[in-house]
Amino acid sequence: MDKISLLSILRELECELHQPECRRNRERLMQLLAPDFREFGRSGASYTRDHILTKLPSDPEVLKIHAQDFAVQALSDSIALLTYRSAHTGQSGELYRHTNRSSIWRFASTGWQMVFHQGTPTDPFEVA
Hints:
Layout (H helix, E strand, L loop, with lengths): L2 H14 L3 H4 L2 H7 E8 L5 E3 H7 L9 E10 L4 E11 L5 E14 L2 E11 L7
Parallel strand pairs: 1-6
Antiparallel strand pairs: 1-2, 3-4, 4-5, 5-6
């Protein structure tokens, strides 16, 4: 798979995980997050797939997430690193909680699944 196609696919899947419809859909989360999924959150907390499957579908908070500056690096034929920057969008359009993000995706028999995700606080950035 060429780099542009891989970037397009993984960006779409990553952004799907930002959407309330996906975050509230346990079955879809199970498809997108590998059984051995692990996250080091922006807060420094560590999460497993089971924790995410319990927390997200019942979380009443609806976040609007802005994401930009996506880049992908193939680590093997079936593993890729996706990096980008994100921020939450406030009601008046202001960005806050600026974060550098990285995700490791693995291609399985059912498609691409996220294996690892990390968020690191960063200085504010301008919308690209």
